[in-house]
Amino acid sequence: MKRAIKLLILGMVVAGFWAAAAAAAALDPGATYTVEVYPITSSGSVGSRSSSDQAVADAAGKLTFQFTNLPNFPTYNFLLIRIKDGSGTIVRQGIAPAPKAGEETLLGISPASVSQTAAMLKAMADAGSDDPVMVLFGFTLIRTGALSDQDVETMGDLARAAVLNGFNAYLEGKIGATKMQAFRNAVQNRLGAYTAKIKELIDSADAGQKQNFRGEAGAMLSAFLVEAAAAAGFDPALIPPAMKAMSDQAETHVAFLSEEMTACMDVVMASTYLKIMAEVVKQKYSSGLDVLGASADQISRMNQAINGFSDALVGIFADFESLFEDEEEMPTVEALEEKLADMQTAFMGAFNTFMTESASTVEELDAMVASLKNGVCPATGNQAVCEASIDELKGPNPDYLGLGGVFQVRNLYGQPLRWPIPMVVAVKWVVDHYPTQFHYTRDDLAPAPQHWLNERHIFSGLFMPSALSHILELREDIEIVYGRRMAGEIAASCDITQADWDALPPEDQTDPEVLAMLGGFHPQGKVLRIVDAENTANQDDQDGLNPALVPGFNHCDDMAPFLNGYELQGLEDLLLERLETLKENIGPEAVTEAQRQALIDVLSAPRFR
Could you tell me which of 396, 377, 398, 395 has the C-alpha nearest to residue 386? Predict the structure, then answer.
């Protein structure tokens, strides 16, 4: 069984040239503590103590300390802060990004820091590395100080194996060692903003504000990964597949975690993955719309829609963070599952709002229709008939939302909306530049058997301009590629492999009723449903696919046996390769590489999974 990887962060880190840092969660008021600073070496070991000072806890049990002239970046990536009581016992510890010379890092240390730091010290020592990406994800997954020693040790092992052998290995294989090191540095450079937000959280006395700070801090880490990718000079769209590679490596360690920690990690990772996808969608749409000549207003409205969705996710994170108000108590599995259900409901509402806000205006569709008429109709020899046929595509209502209108979509609740801005921009760009020359050669990849996408449509017809039909074909082929990827994920969740399929008896590979309906023949050679085979997918895996969007959809029975092995190996790599094939099938030759990529990007439906 494969677990869908999902991620977030709530760490408590440190201060470095260092302005005041606070230690939360009630140390003894009035007691004197020793604060020590150690560099962490590039081999992941703790170096010799570099600084030490004493501080007295205030009446609230908080400790404030400040150091200068500390070991700094790039000699070191991280510093270890240890707080000891009068007997020399370590009562708090935290890891902070080492500051650059002349800069400062703010830090808050709390009970969660103790668990995070113990797990990360183990991960770094076992890995022989102070890799910043590993530390980021370690802080991401550990949200509470209420971990058992076994959970702390397992999380150290999980972070090391999943990040170094999964996330990092995938990325470096795509971008090379030089850009990978630039990515690590960019991640390390951003962690100070996160630790400063955690200090704000600890310094605040307002419970509601604390919850908001936790949500903001969690959202920050998702943005850091996308920002670091851009800073290192590679496509941030590689971050989500790297996270999926991470999930494969993490799977073997999950069995050694407590049920509560496993449930917590699932919710945390689901939340952050959404935020990362929102950042990637924003980057893709912004770049593609700019290349295709969208107006400043269209780009602004699209960015506002995505930003609104992203902000809604921050609020969803903040609500989740309320479970960790007491960092010394682990939330129950029931509380975590209830919160996950709330988050899914909130996500659907936020996504519907995004769809509404990213819809085009009547005026924009009017301009697109005018471009279609001006570009296509003069070459037909019958301007009036051509224009009338294009008007038919608008439907009966001037707002484009009437029955039979082509230029509309439906939201998750079935309500009609005008085409999204990216679709309008793509069509207008094509007909303004290549009204009769634009063409696309269709892909031959068979659609997955999804209820909402179960056949390849024919768009060309007597009254459909060829440029428009080719755009719609390209868009549908993009959807088919993504649908096949999702089908592969479902198959992995069901533990069905190509070898498993081939080993099934013929009666379990086919559905007699379907075969009879098809005259005893099926174009793929196999039917789309399994009659009798083991379904080992657990409820968490199936719920993660949001079946509420497709009522009555049996994931494993409908998907797993259809797959032919293409999807079961390197799903993300194969998806990217297939999208490259679609891009190559766009013509004429005068369309540049950047314009082809922009068409792929803006014609892709926004994906947050």
Answer: 377
